[in-house]
Amino acid sequence: MKDNKPGFLRKLLRYTLLLLNVGSVVWIALCALAAVKSPLEVSHLALVTLTTPFAIIANVLFVFIWLFTSKKIRSLLSLIALVVCYKLIFVVFGFHFGKNDMAKANDRLRVVTWNVHGMGIFKVPRDKAFEKDILTYLKELDADIMCLPEYSVPKTDSMKPYGRKIMENGNYPEYRFHYDNTLGTTIFLGTAVFTRHQFFNYKAHQLAEYTFLLQGDVALPGGDTMRTFYVHLSTFGLSDDEKAYIEYVKKNSSALTNSLGLTRSFIWKFNYAFAKRAEETDKAAAIIAQSPYPVMICGDFNDLPGSYTYTKLRGNLNDAFADKGKFLGRTYSQILPTLRIDHLFYDPAVLKIVGFDCPHTELSDHRPVIANFEIIRKAGS
User: Fold this and answer.
1) Phi, psi of 329 (to 5 degrees)
2) What torsion do the CA atoms of 157, 159, 163, 165 make, to the nearest 10 degrees?
3) Which of 78-82, 200-204, 236-240, 290-294 has the lowest mean pLDDT?
4) pLDDT grade, residue 377 (50/70/90)?
5) Around Cβ 1, how many Cβ atoms within 10 Å?
6) For residue range 41-67, what is the model confidence (pLDDT) as tens digits?
7) What does each C-alpha distance from 311 to 38, 131, 332 come to in angstroms?
8) What is the average pLDDT across 287-298?
């Protein structure tokens, strides 16, 4: 008689796969926990949010791997984990491949948030052609409301060198700027807001020493008022050299073992940044919750979908990417293709998204987030 029992190597492979599968389930469970647990309460947990897309992909792979074995029942391990964590999947990945309507109309509102990386201020010597290109690009975006984190102005006059030109080029009667940092002794860096709609009740709420939440009410056609918020939360604090090192390690993985000290430095910086953003997020969420009007929030959050920052600030609002985006929706062009750190949240009671785009551009290290909305008018208006 033939011995139908699997051989030792086959058993070893199956049990190794099972162990890895259990690990992947724990992995995605930790990612789900990190999405709702403040980094101020549990240290180091937030680090797993950097890996959430990979945890999801790993569990999807295990479902299919087990389906091609005699132990098909084991596919339920990851399948159940994916079902339980389904909300995480739909904030990380976009599955919308249908109609994407970016056309302008009188009853529509186009909103753009784009970290403009200083508007070319970091280029030495000054590149006038670049500055002209970025002004042309802003005009072509044709936004009705435009949020520009990391916008630069001279300390003596916030209308220079670009404010007046952007207002003229885009027909923006309303412009606000608030600094959050300095570059040398003559330049302010901060967040600028340009809008074609009446903008009132403007405030700048301080969340931390270098972080502000800008607030302004927008009068929408049809009679509704929408309270809008614009923010640029604390960064991971990586220097250009450290970013270059990460790019080098991506191509030369052996370098990682030779730089454990630098790796520990990254982990410390990341944990500090996660905790700092959690403090800023809690303050911002408390301010936003007091709004008597429907809300829109946008800007550079410096945190990923599935992070505590993302979950807390989004609350019950819709995410423009989750509603109309596709794939991963990368907004930061360096380090990893999973870095969607610029977000746009809105209240579906006043806005209906019809189009979304996040095009690549060499004019900044971030990509613009563009959302096209239909304005939902009040009954009888």
Assistant:
1) 65, 35
2) -120
3) 236-240
4) confident
5) 3
6) 998 999 999 999 999 999 999 999 999
7) 10, 36, 19
8) 98
Provide the pLDDT for residue 3: 54
Residue type, 129: A
HSE toward the beta carbon, residue 331, CA cutoff 13 A: 26
Q: Which domains does the chain have, with CATH numbers?
A: 8-92 (no CATH), 108-375 (3.60.10.10)
What residues contact residue 29 under an 8 Å CB cut-off, 6+ apart? 81, 85
- Terminal-to-terminal C-alpha distance of the chain: 84
Tell me the C-alpha distance between 215 and 203, whole Å: 5
Nearest to 321 by CA among 355, 288, 350, 294: 355
**Is-contact 287 331, C-beta < 8 A?**
no
pLDDT of 1 above 70: no
**Helix 260-288 and helix 240-251: axis angle, to 10°?**
120
Measured CA to CA, the distance from residue 123 to residue 130 in angstroms comes to 9
Token pair belonging to 25: 């389930």
